[in-house]
Amino acid sequence: MCALIVGQFDKLRPSVNYAGTTAAAPGYGWGPRIIPDYHLVYLLSGTAELRLGLQSFELRPGDLGLYGGGTPMMLSSPSDTPFVYYSIHFDWERESACPVHPSPRMVYCDREQLNREPVTLAIKMHDGDSFTLPFTTRAPHLEDIISRIAEEYRLQSFGYEIALRGKMSLLLAELLRHLREEKEPGSKRKIMPALQLLEQHQDRAWSVPELAHACGYQTAYFTELFKKAVGSTPKSYMMEQRIRHAKRLLLAGEPIDVIASRLGYGGPHYFHRSFKEETGMTPSEFRMYNR
């Protein structure tokens, strides 16, 4: 089956139609339905099942799903626990940057229409080759950009349409960069043990020498490799990861003092100050705005 070309990457003018945070109660789901645009789903907490035609994907915190092009879909919880996710509906290429909400144009269908292969999406690169987009990928480093898009859409301040287009362009560029690096990991493969430790033990405060030792390198060389692979120093990356984890716990309803202790901040005051420095909001404000 031929892939659907969504556009040429260096000529894209993406338009955000909707962006926000959604909390799904246990047992609740969406679909089967066919959306009129494209949909990016980023899981913040819990576990979700994304059904795209005949294929099913399990999404966990930090996972991203992407689909469209007429593919029948369902999004639901495979367990008796809730899940929270960011949702961005968008068009890859449209002259106007003004949002066009997808709800009035959604088509609800029966489960029989799920019995077909999902539409594979691809994007044409400037060298003429096309790059196939996976339906899901792991991309926790994109959470901050996604959250800024959701916040821009929520506020809808003057010029927000153009701001959304700029932020969405940045998100798509970072996503394509990430996907290309996944195919050609290079230095990222060398620091994978450190990345796995950071993801599997998010409540531990790792030192850079410990991470370097896990990869078998001297600290200075490891720091150089790390920055080349992910675009930031180990310390900056760990700080960003800890804030991402704090956001998930806040959205899950954890008390602020428990989060501060669990993530090793030493106390609610230091957590409050660090969170505001990184996000521009206090933990309480973040939780209130993303309900």
List the helices and strands and how they pair.
Blueprint: E1 4-8, E2 15-24, E3 29-34, E4 38-45, E5 48-52, E6 55-59, E7 63-68, E8 73-76, E9 83-91, E10 107-108, E11 121-124, E12 130-133, E13 136-138, H1 143-155, H2 160-183, H3 187-190, H4 192-200, H5 208-215, H6 219-230, H7 234-251, H8 256-262, H9 268-279, H10 283-289
Helix pairs in contact: 1-2, 4-5, 5-6, 8-9
β-strand number? 13
Tally of individual domains: 2
The main sheet orders its strands as 2-9-4-7-13
CATH topology of the largest domain: Jelly Rolls
Q: Return the average pLDDT rounded to an integer.
A: 90
Put the structure in a nutshell.
With 291 residues, the protein is α+β, with helices and mostly antiparallel strands. The chain contains ten helices and 13 strands.
Structural overview:
The protein is of the alpha+beta class and 291 residues long. It has two domains: 4-183, Regulatory protein AraC (Jelly Rolls, Sandwich), CATH 2.60.120.280; 187-289, Arc Repressor Mutant, subunit A (Orthogonal Bundle). It contains ten helices and 13 strands. The chain has helices spanning 143-155, 160-183, 187-190, 192-200, 208-215, 219-230, 234-251, 256-262, 268-279, 283-289; strands at 4-8, 15-24, 29-34, 38-45, 48-52, 55-59, 63-68, 73-76, 83-91, 107-108, 121-124, 130-133, 136-138. The strands form three sheets. It has a five-stranded antiparallel β-sheet. Helix 1 runs antiparallel to helix 2. It is globular, with a radius of gyration of 20 Å. It starts with a strand and ends with a helix.
